[in-house]
Design a protein that fits this description.
This protein is an alpha+beta fold. The chain has 5 helices and 7 strands. The chain has one domain: 2-Layer Sandwich (Alpha-D-Glucose-1,6-Bisphosphate, Chain A, domain 4), CATH 3.30.530.20. Helices cover 31% and strands 42% of the residues. It has a 7-stranded antiparallel sheet. A hairpin with a 5-residue loop joins β5 and β6. The chain is globular, with a radius of gyration of 24 Å.
């Protein structure tokens, strides 16, 4: 499975870079992440509970950062085992660029699954992977570069709705009264 995307984040490139290397931020952003522990500057171990279609599994894995180019980007790769559910492995190249007062983060992801997960079919796996990536980047964007709160929508006065049954009898009552 291959996936590419980009996100605009309302924070400086150095702030985004720091967050991409902060274990606490990453743990909060990774869907289903139960633990994420830094072993060294480039190695981490993780445990995440995920559901992909009908398969629920807890994945234990390793994450490695390479091709470090602060504050411009890196390569992140990992592999995890979900027991009888199978395995997942893959990686992403993440690049950061200045975008006005914020940062443009682009990513290219490659992933592979095996075991029961591979039997689910490519479309289900691809859609789940896209959903998980979207969840990660939505959380990451909200934590690192919170956008200004949206203006509240104008509130219309409450109107009592009447169903078709009540309206039907109302018409008959009006006709009978005339």
């Amino acid at each position: 499975m291959d996936m590419t995307g980009e996100r605009r984040i309302a924070a400086s490139r150095t702030e985004v870079w720091a967050a991409l290397n902060d274990v606490d931020v990453l743990k909060r952003c990774i869907p289903g992440c139960e633990t994420l522990e830094k072993q060294s500057d480039t190695d981490m171990v993780a445990r995440a509970k995920l559901q992909i279609g009908p398969v629920k599994a807890t994945f234990n894995g390793k994450v490695k950062l390479s091709d470090l180019d602060p504050p411009n980007g890196y390569r992140i790769s990992g592999e995890g085992s979900g027991g009888v559910a199978g395995y997942a492995k893959g990686g992403a190249v993440v690049r950061l660029a200045d975008d006005g007062t914020g940062t443009l983060m682009t990513y290219q992801v490659k992933a592979d699954v095996g075991g029961k997960l591979a039997q689910l079919g490519g479309r289900l796996i691809d859609s789940t992977a896209k959903k998980l990536a979207d969840e990660f980047f939505e959380k990451f964007t909200s934590i690192v570069g919170p956008s200004a709160p949206a203006a509240p929508a104008p509130v219309a006065p409450a109107q009592k709705k009447q169903g078709w049954f009540r309206r039907l009898f109302r018409r008959k009552d009006k006709r009978a009264a005339s």
